Amino acid sequence: MLYKTLFATTAAATVLAGAVQAQEHVLKYAHFQSADMSSPKHAAALAFESCVEGKTSDAIDVQIFPASQLGDGPTVMEGLELGTIQMGVVHDGPISGTYQPFSVLAMPYIFDDQAMAWSVMDGEFGDALFEDMREQTGIRAFGVADNGVRNFTNSVRPVAEPADMEGLKIRVQTAPVWVNLVESLGASATPVPWPELPGALQQGVVDGQENGVTNILNASLYQHQDYVSLDGHVFSWHAYMMNEDFYQGLSGDQQTAVNQCVDIAITIHRGMTAAQDANAATILAERGLEVTPVSPENKDKFREAAQPAVREYIVGEIGEDWPNRLDEAVQAYRDQY
User: Fold this and answer.
1) pLDDT per position as a tens digit, 90-129
2) pLDDT at position 22
3) Please, are residues 59 and 249 in contact by the beta-carbon 8 Å criterion?
4) Cα(12)–Cα(26) distance, rounded to whole angstroms?
5) Given pLDDT bands bounded at 50, 70 and 90, which one contains residue 327?
6) Contact (CB, 8 A) for 145 and 270
7) Domains of the chain listed by start with CATH number
8) CA-to-CA distance for 81 and 178, rounded, in angstroms?
9) Residue 166 to residue 299: CA distance in whole angstroms
10) What mean pLDDT comes out for the span 162-174?
């Protein structure tokens, strides 16, 4: 009887030890979109979870926290710095609040299309930016996926050229560069955290906002807006980031698995968001918005009004190095074609 008891106790301890060993690392993964498969961030997160747990035989336990459950963008960035959040997919504004050079990507009307934007961010420019970010913050950026081509929506009037922006109250991300962008076009800018945006639109705190199609759909922003202007002022990004100490605590094989699975997640995320951007006019019209295409001539007016002012602001904040590097990367892409 004693032998059987000892055997059962030893067996149970062995099973428990095996379970503990199997889950060596808990990876808390934060993003802000809703927890459904129509959300590019969540579809990509689920793919990452399945991929990593499969490749590591569950040694990494990926726990996904969607819909800002772990806090807004600045809170997640702080968690990534401290290591209380191991992985986050965060948009440009909060990133530039933690790592200022990221604000260079708020330069308006700089990319012609997704092909150019992806090439620049996947090339030497993106690599250098991410390495500098890792050194300065202790946050590793693996790469970026689309946060959507940003367009203006509002509840007051159609916007076809900068003069139509005059007097509009526009919500912007919580980083000064976005305030500068909107004010350069004659509107007034009000920083509002993402979770509070639907309420701000519904209550009339702001007349409008600027976002890509994915975010407009995901948060049902179209319910409180009447007009959308397809000016495409900024190619916005979500960065896939991890606390560097956590990453270095993984084995070589586990790091390889994470790298490979992030690549898969980014590919899914980009594809879903880019498809929505390409069909923006149809998708938003079906949601009841009056769509205003912006002609090339009027887009030049937007560029001439916004780009010099925003560039001057960015240079004043971070110097000329990163803006110049971005210009060079864009020109190098154009020289290929």
Assistant:
1) 998 899 999 999 999 999 999 999 999 999 999 999 999 9
2) 53
3) no
4) 23
5) very high
6) yes
7) 24-335 (3.40.190.170)
8) 23
9) 16
10) 95
Nearest to 85 by CA among 21, 139, 146: 139
Residue 2 has pLDDT above 70, yes or no: no
Q: Are 178 and 306 spatial neighbours (Cβ–Cβ below 8 Å)? A: no
> Residue 87: which of 70, 103, 67, 104 has the closest Cα?
70
Structure tokens, 242: 């991890």
Instruction: Characterize 194-227 residue by residue with b for buried, 16 or more Cβ atoms within 10 angstroms of its Cβ, and e for exposed.
Output: beebbebbeeeebbbbbbbbbbbbbbebbebbbb
Q: Quote the CA–CA distance of 27 and 19 in Å, as a whole number.
A: 16
Do residues 168 and 226 make contact, with C-beta atoms less than 8 angstroms apart? no
The residue whose two tokens read 């946050």 is 139
Task: Report the pLDDT value the prediction gives residue 6, as an integer from 0 to 100.
Answer: 43
Give 17: exposed, middle or buried? Use CB within 10 Å, 0-12, 13-18, 19+: exposed
For residues 235 and 111, give the distance between their C-alpha atoms in angstroms, rounded to a whole number: 7
Please, what is the angle between helix 321-335 and helix 114-122, to 10°? 120
pLDDT of the residue at 194? 87
- In the chain, the percentage of residues whose pLDDT exceeds 90 is 88
Q: Around Cβ 229, how many Cβ atoms within 10 Å? A: 26
List, for residues 31-53, the tens digit of each pLDDT value: 999 999 999 999 999 999 999 99
pLDDT at 3 over 70: no
Phi, psi of 29 (to 5 degrees): -120, 115
d(CA 139, CA 246): 10
Geometric angle at alpha carbon 181, from 221 and 209, rounded to 5°? 10
Query: pTM, whole model, 2 decimals?
Result: 0.87
CB within 8 A of 86, min separation 6: which ones? 25, 26, 27, 28, 29, 80, 242, 243, 246
